[in-house]
């Protein structure tokens, strides 16, 4: 019996020693890893600083006409490729991360959402694309079903509950998009700030709309004119989202292959696709923005003439006009950038053909 107790005691002492040795080995490994990580972090920062310095130098030489513009374009392209290699590879984990916005802190608290592994970052991007694909289809179907039922079942007058259910879904949709876009931005994506702000505005509008009473008979058609126009605009938005989601990946894959973009970047509809696709998307986008402004003005008219004199209608009308103007300005700016990029590519191609 005593012999068995001694054996158990020896085994426990052995396990204790092994645990101590394992702890020391782990601590040593972590220390070496931290030192190696710090060294790589300094190299990454130094390389990024060199890229910025060289870009400034090229701009300075071009402005003083000491460097040929075609050669400057080539050097800029090489620096952009180097930046994409640095930001799109495993070395990106050693670059400084972007500060998380207030939106994420408000909902998640002080949680770090930056993924250190590239495969995890790409899964976040894939999930974002999947979310947009699913919601685009629902964005098209939901208002179509409501307008169909309004005409054929509800005798031209929408009940309050289905409309409020739709507004609640819009609140969930835009909150989900804003959350995912903030996380993508924290992980190095180049999502334009306007699109995130646009989704904030859409969230606020959906929330305000939920507090509004949906008027019915009498004069239901007149009182619900704004709701009808909004649902028609939502159908257009759903069509545009489906086209954007289809074409933008083709453009992004091309830019990644050319070293012009990172895998975490997002290409929006007005920059998507080749010229033929752009000729299809641009009229739809501009038409949708004009109709969006029209819906906002009609909501304001409905409130100001006394048909539905509620502050929610005025607020949503102003927000609609603001978002339409913002979307239009952002689309025009993007098309101007695209035009300059195409002109630059033509100059580079012409220079190569001369040689």
Instruction: Name the structural class.
Output: mainly alpha
Structural Rg: 28 Å
Task: Tell me about the largest β-sheet.
Answer: none
Label the overall shape. Answer: flat
Question: What can you tell me about this protein's structure?
Answer:
By secondary structure, the protein is mainly alpha-helical. The chain has helices spanning 2-63, 69-88, 102-108, 118-152, 160-186, 193-210, 220-223, 225-257, 275-304, 311-354. Residues 5-32 form a coiled coil. Belongs to the TMEM120 family. The chain crosses the membrane at residues 135-154, 160-179, 267-291, 311-332.
Q: What structural keywords apply?
A:
single chain; 355 residues; mainly alpha; 2 domains; 10 helices; flat; TMEM120A/B; TMPIT-like protein; transmembrane
Task: List the SSEs and their pairings.
Elements: H1 2-63, H2 69-88, H3 102-108, H4 118-152, H5 160-186, H6 193-210, H7 220-223, H8 225-257, H9 275-304, H10 311-354
């Amino acid at each position: 019996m005593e012999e068995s107790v001694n054996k158990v005691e020896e085994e426990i002492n052995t396990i204790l020693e092994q645990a101590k040795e394992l702890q020391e080995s782990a601590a040593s490994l972590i220390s070496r890893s931290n030192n190696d990580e710090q060294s790589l972090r300094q190299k990454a920062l130094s390389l990024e600083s060199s890229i910025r310095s060289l870009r400034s130098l090229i701009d300075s030489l071009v402005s003083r006409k000491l460097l040929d513009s075609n050669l400057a374009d080539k050097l800029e392209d090489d620096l952009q490729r180097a930046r994409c290699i640095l930001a799109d590879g495993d070395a990106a984990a050693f670059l400084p991360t972007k500060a998380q916005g207030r939106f994420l802190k408000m909902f998640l608290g002080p949680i770090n959402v930056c993924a250190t592994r590239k495969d995890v970052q790409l899964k976040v991007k894939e999930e974002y694309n999947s979310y947009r694909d699913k919601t685009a289809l629902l964005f098209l179907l939901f208002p179509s079903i409501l307008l169909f039922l309004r005409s054929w079942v509800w005798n031209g007058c929408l009940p309050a509950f289905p409309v409020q259910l739709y507004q609640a879904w819009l609140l969930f949709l835009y909150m989900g998009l804003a959350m995912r876009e903030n996380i993508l931005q924290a992980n190095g994506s180049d999502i334009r700030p306007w699109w995130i702000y646009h989704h904030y505005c859409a969230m606020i509008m959906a929330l305000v709309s939920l507090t509004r009473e949906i008027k019915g008979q009498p004069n239901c058609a007149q009182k619900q004119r704004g709701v009808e126009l909004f649902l028609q605009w939502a159908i257009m938005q759903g069509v545009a989202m489906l086209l954007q989601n289809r074409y933008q990946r083709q453009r992004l894959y091309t830019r990644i292959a050319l070293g012009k973009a990172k895998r975490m970047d997002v290409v929006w509809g007005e920059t998507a696709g080749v010229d033929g696709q752009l000729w299809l998307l641009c009229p739809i986008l501009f038409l949708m923005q004009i109709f969006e402004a029209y819906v906002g003005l009609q909501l304001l008219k409905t409130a100001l003439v006394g048909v539905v004199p509620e502050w929610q209608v005025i607020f949503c009308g102003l927000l609609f006009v603001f978002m339409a103007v913002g979307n239009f300005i952002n689309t025009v700016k993007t098309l101007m950038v695209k035009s300059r990029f195409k002109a630059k590519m033509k100059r580079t191609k012409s220079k190569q053909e001369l040689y």
